[in-house]
Design goal:
This protein has a five-stranded parallel β-sheet with strand order 2-3-1-4-5, sandwiched between helices. The protein has one domain: P-loop containing nucleotide triphosphate hydrolases (Rossmann fold, 3-Layer(aba) Sandwich), CATH 3.40.50. Helices cover about 55% and strands about 5% of the residues. It contains 14 helices and five strands. By secondary structure, the chain is mainly α. This is P-loop containing nucleoside triphosphate hydrolase protein. InterPro entries: P-loop_NTPase (IPR027417), Sulfotransfer_4 (IPR040632). Keywords: Membrane, Transmembrane, Transmembrane helix.
Length: about 270
C-alpha cells in the first residue's frame, strides 16, 4: 500500500575505492551526536552520517532504513540477514545518531575495521528529559497530519516512529531509561566478546580522549557545541523540513478545496 500511495526508492550508492568507514558512533540520540558529528568533520572525516542528513537532504534513505527496522524490531528472533549498509552509507567515513544506531551490532560486523565510540549522556535523567523536550515534541500530531500529504514527511514519520517509539517498546515514558541501559550493555558485551577496543565518551570529555583514540592531533579550536535542546532543536528541524512542509500544506489545501467542492456539489444536487 505504501509503495502505491507514497512511492520512494531506496538509494543504491557505491563506495569510492580507497574511501572507508573509519568511525562508528553507536550511542543514542541526544547523547552528543551532533557535537560529535561536527568534531569528526573538524578532524577530517568526510560525510559524517547523522539523522539530520536524512531529514534535510537524503530523505530517500528512509526507504532503506524503515523496512529494515520493521524487520528487526517487529520480528527480532528471525532477523538474520546480510545487510548492504554501503548502499546507503557508501559516501560516509563516519556514522552517528539514529537510525543507524539501531543496528550497532550489524554495523560492527559490516565494518570490522572501523573504530567504535559509545557516546553517551552519563546523566540518564538528563538524557531522558532532553529526549522528551526535543525529538518527542517535534514529531507530534501536527507532523502526523502533514505526513498524509507529502511522501517525504510520511517516510520521515515512519522512520521516527520506529527509532523513537518502537525501539523503546512503544512507550518511551515507561521504557526509555531501561532501553537506554540495555542498548549500551548489549554493545559493550558484543565489543568484549569481539575483543574490540572502543571509546566510552561523553561531550564533557571533549577533544583529548577522542583525538587520542582516533590518532588525531587535538585541534586548536573549542569543542563544538552542537544541537542544544528546546528552541534550537525546533529551529533546526523547521529549517530542515521547510520545503516538504510547504508542499504538504499546498497538497492539504488542494485536497480540502476538492472535498469542499464535492460537498457543495452534493448539497446543491440534493436540494
Amino acid at each position: 500500500m505504501e509503495k502505491l500511495f507514497y512511492p520512494l526508492n531506496p538509494p543504491d550508492r557505491r563506495r569510492i575505492p580507497g574511501k572507508q568507514m573509519h568511525v562508528l558512533c553507536l550511542g543514542l540520540s541526544r547523547s552528543g551526536t551532533d557535537s560529535l558529528r561536527s568534531a569528526l568533520m573538524i578532524l577530517g572525516y568526510s560525510d559524517v552520517y547523522h539523522g539530520f542528513v536524512i531529514t534535510a537532504r537524503q530523505r530517500e534513505d528512509c526507504a532503506f532504513w524503515v523496512p529494515l527496522m520493521r524487520r528487526k524490531l517487529h520480528d527480532p528472533t528471525n532477523f538474520q540477514e546480510a545487510i548492504d549498509f554501503d548502499s546507503v552509507l557508501a559516501n560516509c567515513e563516519a556514522v552517528t545518531d539514529g537510525p543507524a544506531n539501531v543496528f550497532g551490532e550489524e554495523l560492527m560486523s559490516y565494518y570490522p575495521n572501523a573504530k567504535v565510540i559509545l557516546n553517551r549522556r552519563r546523566d540518564v535523567d538528563a538524557w531522558y528529559a532532553s529526549m522528551k523536550k526535543t525529538c518527542l515534541e517535534v514529531f507530534s500530531w501536527p507532523m502526523w497530519i502533514l505526513s498524509w500529504f507529502d511522501t517525504s514527511i510520511c517516510w520521515l514519520w515512519w522512520n521516527f516512529e520506529l527509532v523513537m517509539k518502537d525501539y523503546y517498546r512503544g512507550d518511551f515514558d515507561q521504557y526509555g531509561k531501561q532501553v537506554s541501559e540495555e542498548h549500551y550493555k548489549r554493545l559493550e558485551e558484543r565489543l568484549a566478546d569481539d575483543q574490540r577496543p572502543y571509546l566510552d565518551w561523553s561531550v564533557e570529555d571533549g577533544w583529548e580522549p577522542l583525538c587520542e583514540f582516533l590518532g588525531k592531533p587535538v585541534p586548536g579550536v573549542p569543542f563544538p557545541d552542537g544541537n542544544k535542546g528546546g528552541g534550537q532543536f525546533q529551529e533546526n528541524m523547521e529549517e530542515a523540513t521547510k520545503d516538504i512542509v510547504m508542499n504538504a500544506l499546498r497538497n492539504m489545501g488542494v485536497c480540502s478545496a476538492l472535498v469542499l467542492s464535492i460537498v457543495l456539489g452534493l448539497a446543491y444536487t440534493c436540494r
